[in-house]
Design goal:
mainly alpha; two-stranded antiparallel ribbon; disordered N terminus
Length: 309
C-alpha cells in the first residue's frame, strides 16, 4: 500500500518520475538493440539474399544474378548433401545423447563426494582446454593402424587390427568417440551446477518417505535437473551440427563420404567449387534443419514432462 501511494500525487495520478525512468530505460536499450540488429540480422538477411542468386566475380567485380530455381535444382540433385545430412544427424544423435548420459552420471558422482570437488572439476575439464589441432594429432596417433596403442592392445589379446579411421563402417563412430571425449566435460560442468542447486529438503523428504535411489533419481532428481539438461542439450546440439575441425583433422570426410558432414560439404561448395549462391542456400537449409531439430526435441521434452507430472 505504501509503495503504491509513493508513486502517486495527492490527486491519485501517477507521478512523472517513474515514467521518465521507464522511458530512459527503454531509450538506453535502443543503441544495444540497433547494434545487435546490425551484427546479426543484417548478415543473416544477406545470406538469404545470396541463397536466391548466382554470384560470380568478373573483371574485379562481384555480379549477382537472381536465379533461385537454379540453386534449388542443384540442391535437389545433390546426393552428397543428402549423405552429409544423414551423417550429421547420426553424429549429433550419438554424440549428444552419450554426452548427456555421461554428464549426468559424472555430475551425480561428483556431487556425492564430500571432499575434492574442486580437484575433480579441474581434472575433468582438461579436455576442453586442449586445442582442436592438438586433439586431432593426438587421436590420429591413438587410432593409428600400424603403431597406435588401441591396435597394440587388440594384438596383445589376439585380435586383428582395426582401421579406426580407414574403414567406412567405423570411421564416423571413431570421430564420435573423440567428440565425446572433448565435450562431455562441458556437459558435466553445466549439469554439476544444476545438481549443486537442487533443493536438498525435497530430496531428504522423499528419502524419509521411503524412496530408494532409483525412485529418487527417476521421480525427483531428473525432473528437477531437466532445465539444466535442456540447456546442455541445446548448446551441444548446435555445436555438434556445426562440427568441422575434428572431421577435417581426423578423416577429411573419408573414407569415401562416410564421415562427410554438413559443415565440410559447405566448405567444399564455397571454397573448392566457388558456388557462393548455392553454398548460401545450403547454409539456409542447414539453419532450418537445426531449428526443426531443436523444436522437435523441445516438444518431446515438454511431452515427457507433462507425462511425468
Amino acid at each position: 500500500m505504501t509503495a503504491v501511494s509513493g508513486n502517486r500525487n495527492e490527486a491519485g495520478r501517477p507521478q512523472r518520475a517513474p515514467r521518465r525512468r521507464q522511458a530512459f530505460r527503454h531509450l538506453a536499450l535502443w543503441p544495444a538493440a540497433i547494434l545487435l540488429a546490425v551484427l546479426t540480422v543484417v548478415p543473416v538477411l544477406n545470406l538469404f539474399a545470396m541463397a536466391l542468386t548466382e554470384i560470380s566475380i568478373s573483371r574485379g567485380k562481384v555480379e549477382w544474378a537472381l536465379k533461385p530455381l537454379s540453386n534449388l535444382n542443384l540442391l535437389l540433385g545433390d546426393a552428397l548433401f543428402l549423405t552429409a545430412t544423414l551423417n550429421t544427424i547420426l553424429f549429433v544423435v550419438l554424440s549428444v545423447s552419450i554426452e548427456l548420459v555421461l554428464g549426468v552420471a559424472l555430475a551425480l558422482l561428483a556431487a556425492s563426494v564430500r571432499r575434492g570437488k574442486g580437484l575433480i572439476r579441474t581434472v575433468t575439464i582438461l579436455p576442453i582446454l586442449v586445442s582442436p589441432v592438438a586433439i586431432g594429432a593426438m587421436w590420429r596417433l591413438i587410432y593409428s593402424y600400424d603403431f597406435g596403442p588401441l591396435n597394440q592392445i587388440l594384438e596383445a589379446f589376439g585380435f586383428a587390427k582395426v582401421g579406426w579411421l580407414s574403414e567406412t563402417s567405423i570411421a564416423l563412430l571413431s570421430v564420435v568417440v573423440v567428440d565425446i571425449w572433448h565435450w562431455t566435460p562441458l556437459v558435466f560442468l553445466i549439469l554439476f551446477a544444476g545438481v549443486e542447486g537442487l533443493p536438498r529438503e525435497v530430496i531428504e523428504a522423499a528419502r524419509m518417505d521411503g524412496a530408494n535411489r532409483r525412485q529418487l533419481l527417476r521421480y525427483i532428481v531428473l525432473p528437477l535437473l531437466a532445465p539444466a539438461i535442456g540447456v546442455a542439450f541445446i548448446f551441444r546440439s548446435i555445436a555438434a551440427f556445426k562440427v568441422f575441425d575434428q572431421i577435417v583433422l581426423l578423416t577429411g570426410g573419408g573414407p569415401g563420404t562416410s564421415t562427410e558432414v554438413l559443415s565440410l560439404r559447405l566448405y567444399k561448395v564455397y571454397f573448392e567449387q566457388n558456388a557462393m549462391g548455392y553454398g548460401a542456400l545450403l547454409s539456409v537449409v542447414t539453419i532450418v534443419m537445426i531449428l526443426v531439430f531443436l523444436l522437435t526435441a523441445r516438444l518431446g521434452m515438454r511431452w515427457a514432462e507433462a507425462r511425468n507430472a
